[in-house]
Amino acid sequence: MTSNISERASVLSKPRRWAALAVLLFPVLLISVDNTVLSFAVPAITAALSPTGSQLLWIIDIYPLILAGLLVPMGSLGDRFGRRKLLLIGATGFALVSAIAAFATDATQLVAARALLGIFGAMLMPATLSLIRNIFPDDNERRTAVAVWASAFSGGAVLGPIVGGILLEHFWWGSVFLMAVPMLLPLLIGGMILVPESKDPNPGRVDPLSILLVVFTLLPFVYAIKTATTAPWYLLAASVALAIACGAAFVRRQLKAEQPMLDVRLFSNAPFSGALMVNLIGVFSLVGFIYFVSQHLQLIAGFSPLLAGLWMTPGLVLTMAFGLISVGLSRRFGSPNIMALGLVFSAVAYLLVILAGEGANPILLMAAFAVLGTGIGMTETLSNDMVLAAVPASKAGAASAISETAYEVGSVLGIAVLGTILNTVYTSRLLAPGSLTDAQLQTAGETLGGAHQVAATLSAADAQALVDSAAMAFDHGVLLTSGIAALLSLVAAAVVFRVIKPAFR
């Protein structure tokens, strides 16, 4: 009786399979849009709620911290209790908490709401990918479905700046959270009608200690990355030590368990582990690029947030397009070859940024972004599909959760590592006018945006000198981080040829 639940998904009619996929794209779009929109809403939130600097960081960071820590436990719970059930619970909770967040009256309430959104978001993401694994048993259909799923992330990134710009020009900051309600209603209705339930017919027992261990492996690790330049050294050391200790304890517990929450032996599978690394590096490259190019377009080229989003749209559309095109290319040339080619494209994109030099023309940056989008489209679709294909359908929830965790950690690393290096170079190379006070010098030296805020209070000559110096310092940091990102992409391409490709012979 229990095995029929998993098998029932494999006999759906073709129209229902694709209709179910359409329903499953809504949470993917929502979370992708939500990440982009929030960055555009920060100035409005600051003006309305007057958060401290620490509170503002927590408003932004608490969601990915909670999400990264809970993806694996939620994926395993979905395997046991039902992936559709977990998806619908997550969608309901996400919509309700989004509505609460929209009407928060102080920063503390908004931080708490964002933490709850991280919990419910962790229910959504592994469930969507694992349901796709069970709905599409045919390899070619599944690969196409995963390509559409991956493209939804890029679609959300395309919509985020545009939707955010429109909402914030006409409504208050809370509108960016209320947007979740109408987006999740089709999922709640269509999920009950079109999406079949599936679960692991032989699930492991619920293991609260394992859940705690994986949470306290990922949360302190991500926290240490996000606060590497601001937290005291002893707190960072304690966070890393806690993460290592809990991670080691988690692995030992899973190896000894008869029915582990997460089969850590999966990591001995070369295609599985290699695909996870490609996934992480791909997201790392994309997020790092968006981090600096969005600032360059707005603060150096002088574009509005909406116009900057429109300029970035072609590159993101190419990410979607090549996510779909890569399916056909993989059938003809093999998935490892196309994944490696995508990573080379990513490296070339960053090399183009270096060739463009300081004060790069926006057109040249968008050309580089188009090349990057092409490469990311190839790597993300095929790496996600390879992760799913490497495990039995019954373990799709756990595999999906690991893949999503790699995505989130890659996103965090892209900003934390490249952003930290960029900010460090910027601070060291900024030459501020001598008329600045100590407080103004500190603000201008922290971020490019801070330099523009200070410049607004200076005389015309001093303001121009500060803005020009800040632009040069920022772009110099971009050149260094671009070199690092290009090197990582090439290393990942070499790993594909040395580790993944031999497994396909």
Question: How would you portray this structure in words?
Answer:
- With 505 residues, the protein is mainly alpha-helical.
- The chain folds into 3 domains: 1-206, MFS general substrate transporter like domains (Growth Hormone, Chain: A), CATH 1.20.1250; 208-256; 268-505, Growth Hormone, Chain: A.
- Helix content is 83%, strand content 0%.
- The chain is built from 18 helices and no strands.
- The chain has helices at residues 2-8, 14-49, 53-81, 83-102, 107-135, 139-170, 175-178, 180-194, 208-226, 233-256, 270-300, 305-333, 335-356, 362-389, 396-429, 438-446, 448-455, 460-500.
- Helix 3 (53-81) runs antiparallel to helix 9 (208-226), helix 3 (53-81) runs antiparallel to helix 15 (396-429) and helix 4 (83-102) packs antiparallel against helix 5.
- It is globular, with a radius of gyration of 23 Å.
Topology readout:
Blueprint: H1 2-8, H2 14-49, H3 53-81, H4 83-102, H5 107-135, H6 139-170, H7 175-178, H8 180-194, H9 208-226, H10 233-256, H11 270-300, H12 305-333, H13 335-356, H14 362-389, H15 396-429, H16 438-446, H17 448-455, H18 460-500
Helix pairs in contact: 2-5, 2-6, 2-8, 3-4, 3-5, 3-9, 3-15, 4-5, 4-8, 5-6, 5-15, 6-12, 6-14, 9-10, 11-13, 11-14, 11-15, 11-18, 12-13, 12-14, 13-14, 13-18, 15-18, 16-17, 17-18
